[in-house]
Amino acid sequence: MSTMDYLNLFFPFDKPDVVKRGVESMWNISNDRVMMALAMTMTDKPMAVNMSFQREYAERYEWMKQQFIDIAFTYLTSVLFYEDYDTMTPEQRLLMQQGMEAFGGIAPTYRIALLDKPTIVWDFHSLMLGVQMMFSFMLTDTEKPIRICKHCLQTFVASRPSAIFCSPQCKNKYNVYKSRTKEKKE
pLDDT tens across 71-86, in order? Predict the structure, then answer.
């Protein structure tokens, strides 16, 4: 792919002033103090990481939309897997497990920093990778899990592991509808 074709993918509006010398390429930031500071901070990072922090950098809407659809699919697969586990065949379980294994793609790198205590510092080379990692942490959190409200079907972060409603109002509405249905049957 040519340099200009690549730049057109991620810089749809203003393009950086790129200077190409053989395989190596760089951009001209001589009159922009903020970009100079950024370039100095990111000297040890790959050029793609450095470029993703440029003011002009943008992800295509269609690509971002697809990424969030994939995250929603992953979440719903997880919810349905555990809620419908007893009614699924072994083949269906295996299919759902394989679908979950396909989520994620490239893993971020990390390092240990000696701060107040040993601390993991994640190095994300894209915004979407950061979003996916945070989503993965939320999906596997046992203290405050992501849930689907039993009444309104909205996704929410539960304040405790046993929560099944997103709010007291939804819990009350659910119970009112449940009791009315029970009264009609009697």
Answer: 888 888 888 888 899 9
